[in-house]
Amino acid sequence: MITLLGDPVLDVYTFTTAIKISQEAPIPVLLFESYQKKLGGAANVFKNLTNLNLDVSYALFHSNHDSFSELQALLKSTENSLFYMNSLNASVPVKERIICDNQQVARLDRESKFVITESETHTLLQYLDNLPFNSIVLISDYNKSFIPRDVFIYLSDLAQERNLRILCDPHPENLHCCKNFYILTPNVAEISKFLGLEVTLQNYTKALDDLESLLHIKIPCITMGKDGVVCKISNEYFHFPTKAVEVFDVTGAGDTFISSLAASLSLEMTILNSIQIANEMASLSVTHLGTYAPTISEFYSVKNSY
Known about the structure:
CATH architecture: 3-Layer(aba) Sandwich
Shape: globular
Radius of gyration: 20 Å
Strand content: 25-35%
């Protein structure tokens, strides 16, 4: 069982064609063609995991906000466990990307800041209190208020008590809360901001050391975009470059990386091979428009090469 926590996002893709320049301003007039809705954020992580037929429990807050009905319609296509907790104010962020002639030309974000109440947080903590020893917990943090700070603190303690393998794709605002986790996978921009250091392939070992010592992370890992991934395992440093692919859209690459990492670990792959598999799967995801959840055959094709 993989327990998933994190901020769901609804991704909308509006496809258009430019037909002329507006007389009102020097901007193109776009003719609407179609739109597509996809799961984003932690909901995309959930989709990635369920595509691989893994046993997943996604715990998330839910309200009567209109955005949830659209999210639920997409989540219903899965058969895995969804643990909904009632919230008065929670709302799903919506990111609408305007695509014109196969190029993204603008993005419109709709989101409302909200606060999870103390009693709502307590419900989530009670749920987490039932986590079995040695289980895998995956945190997909987009800093959209679905994970209260108290939850990070509680999991930091619980990780040691129950030998949990907590994998976290963190947001820079919450990195300081991610203590005692098994694997932390910030991207290069996030860790550079956190450490106040421009992390490169020339100095990444210092960044990994700092992550390990400051936050007591067992396997510090940094995704480096086009330069692949770097990590530290048992006092050894590793750099795995990306495979050469035609990049179409990097949206959701981090989701696929951490999902594939959790999937590989749940299938008893070594941590080294799990990171290599995750790196290859992330490279596959960027060859598609928008968030992409690799198929089970694509995953096992990569997995079986290790």
